[in-house]
Amino acid sequence: MPKTKPPATTMAATATEIGPPSTGGAGRVLLRMLADNKSLIGLIVLMAVVAAYSPNFLTVDNLLNILRQTSINAIIAMGMTFVILTAGIDLSVGSVLAFTGAVCASLVAADASLWVALPATLMLGAALGAANGVVVAIGGVQPFIATLVSMTVLRGATLVFTDGRPITTLSDPFWAIGGAYIQGIPVPVVIAAVAFGICWFVLGQMRFGRYVYAIGGNEQVTRLAGINVTAVKIAVFAVSGLMAALAGIILTARLESAQPTAGMAYELDAIAAVVLGGTSLMGGRGLIFGTLVGALIIGVLNNALNLMDVSSYYQMIAKGAVILLAVLVDSRGKSRA
Amino acid sequence: MTPPLLSLHGIGKTFGSVTVLRDVAFTARAGRVMALVGENGAGKSTLMKVVSGIHPPDPGGEIRLRGEVVRFTTPRQAMDAGIAIIHQELNLLPSLSVAENIFLGREPRTAIGRIDWSAMKVRAADLLARLRQGHVAPGTPVEHLGVGTQQMVEIARALSLEAEVIVMDEPTDALTDVETRILFDVVDTLKAEGKAIIYISHRLNEIFALCDDVTVLRDGRMVHAGPVADLTEADLIRHMVGREISDQYPYVQSDAKPVMLEVSQLSARGVEDVTFTARAGEVVGFAGLMGAGRTELGRALYGANRLSGGTVRVDGAAIRLRSPCDGQRAGIAYVTEDRKADGLIQSHSIRFNMALGALGRLSTGPVVNRRRETTSVAEYMTMFSVKARDMEAAVSTLSGGNQQKVSLAKSLLTRPRIVILDEPTRGVDVGARRDIYTLINALKRQGLCVLLMSSDMPELLGLSDRILVLSRGRLTGSFDRGEATQERIMERAVA
What we know:
The complex is a heterodimer.
Chain A: H1 6-18, H2 26-36, H3 38-53, H4 60-85, H5 93-109, H6 114-137, H7 143-162, E1 167-168, H8 172-179, E2 181-182, E3 185-186, H9 187-205, H10 207-217, H11 219-224, H12 229-255, E4 257-258, H13 266-276, H14 288-307, H15 312-336
Antiparallel strand pairs in A: 1-4, 2-3
Helix pairs in contact in A: 1-2, 2-3, 3-14, 4-9, 4-10, 4-12, 4-13, 4-14, 5-6, 5-7, 5-12, 6-7, 6-12, 8-12, 9-10, 10-12, 13-14, 14-15
Chain B: E1 4-15, E2 18-29, E3 33-37, H1 44-51, E4 62-65, E5 68-70, H2 75-81, E6 83-86, H3 98-102, H4 117-130, H5 147-160, E7 165-169, H6 177-192, E8 196-200, H7 204-210, E9 213-218, E10 221-227, H8 233-241, E11 259-268, E12 271-279, E13 283-287, H9 294-302, E14 307-314, E15 317-318, H10 324-329, E16 332-335, H11 339-343, H12 350-356, E17 363-364, E18 367-368, H13 370-383, H14 400-412, E19 418-422, H15 430-445, E20 449-453, H16 457-463, E21 466-471, E22 474-480, H17 486-493
Parallel strand pairs in B: 3-8, 3-9, 6-7, 7-8, 13-20, 13-21, 16-19, 19-20
Antiparallel strand pairs in B: 1-2, 1-4, 4-5, 9-10, 11-12, 11-14, 14-15, 17-18, 21-22
Helix pairs in contact in B: 12-13, 12-14
Protein name (chain A): Ribose transport system permease protein
Membrane topology (chain A): Multi-pass membrane protein
GO molecular function (chain A): transmembrane transporter activity
């Protein structure tokens, strides 16, 4: 491995705190990720424990299964990361997922071309998110309240739109988005991977990403630095809405129907993934990579509890306990640093 | 001479591999005021944190209080032993009352354990009267008080603790001249009561006016200790910086250049009907008492405060000023007086902060150009001689002077043509001050228009080509360099 010059090394060292590392060898980056990202260690330990107890865990089929099941939450959580980095929160993602899924299903059921239906659905999601952003950034409403309202309103709108009944879609190309494989890898996993790449780039390399971190760090300073904070905030919620719509498309395609109750409580899993990934709810600190790891921890945990035949009632309790443990370990580490 | 109340011997402090203090010793005596001086980063704050139990000293160091060796592991222990610190950044809860702040955590109780509000108010009023602040009602929320009075509340809290050693960290930085005089009287009273005062300040004239002894720190070592009377101002500066500072305010002459900024009948919150012009290559100073509207004017000119009337022209063209974005687009930069709240994102790195406003220029399309960013930030760090581990160091780890340099660099990276500097040397030591003055002159030579708002009168007189005086939001005076004197300015400032 060629030696990196000193400025580049120091750059990567703290870049892990506010943005992803952009320089340094792969091995070095991995080591640093382990050091800076306790959640990654947590994931590895969790996987090792589960593998020791359950021989069926470390099989290709099961791992792909976990990835597929995780992809929807991971996608929503990535959008959520943007919002939480600005010290906001988006409770409406589950309802956006349901509403956009229903709209997408009705378009597909009406034989609309996927080239129309998919972009239209994504744009709808972004628009709904942007509406949240407008209420927050221009209306001055707390993100918690603003998105609590849109969560309720959109759930109602979904029930009105679907008349409370599922909308079934019988379209093979549409189904493929949720059920097919590319080179043996489930399509949702591929989509989630691409989404991760884009989010990583936007947050770590683009000006917009810097502004997201800056607003979470200190909104007043950011505004005084001549940055259009209102626009960035609206955009951040639009990203969250867009990602929720993407997850809505995948879920609808996979189930071959849009359920009016789809996505209930998904916001909680998404927030848990973000927090498990080490992103501060106070904003300004966190990495999209952490969110991915957080989503995987939740996915592995769900899978493991199933493999171990734990009753679904106890699963919720176990999940809550693990999340609390992880966050406690993480916050202790931080306060000592 | 009275026996030592607090004495330190062989105090060292290292953080990781960085040594901040080395073998420091000093003695504070009852009934005397000891000045602790040194440049930013000399270790004054760390030393006071050792004294107040926030940081334990390295093994080998010894703190004696009334002759007994003490070891504090928490600030509370130091407080209980009678050491109180009044920090540079006041630690008051803004929405609570004066009395509640004074007795926070030690509220007087009635027999059944309820807070005894009336006793609390009476005792608070007593303490305030001792500090000649009898006009302050103990029930007033602290946020309604001026900074000077807030400081008195902090001192009252120290008195309520029966503190015998009182440390004041840059107490006059935010004070007006009148408030400063009251503070000095209070310090004299405390001295007469037999307290030992440790007084940290960058203002040398205060040290000579107020202090009995002086301890000078440089690069974490004690370089001088002794009575103030034995020193001249030049001696003191030499001890602090290790070199002579011949000319404190290096003024440079510049040729008349075209008018760059025209402000007419500008009104905004705290600013009424202000009209003036400023030329390229000119430093226009703004004098005024606290609350005269200098900060408000600066913020309005940058678009940070809404204008309620008037026009602003840059190079003859009227500009829109509805947000800081507009100000920046018009080539205006504003360096805030409140670095902590408005200037820098404390938790983020030097690089992140410096580049923040200039990312448009440092990007290729929407993507940040890391190389260009690193080059620019490195260049400004060298130019401003920012002392830091590297550009990834969090701003919160820097000393006040270095933070100010980062804040200045952040604004200049946007390549402004008009720079508004609001109290650029507040909380900044002699050496770094000098760097900032040199920089102001460099900006002037480059043909920038500099608006300098400062409470430091010698600084304003030393650097400005013209001084405008504000009083209660209005322009009340204008003096050219030759005709401005402290007296004339003060006369207009109170008008």
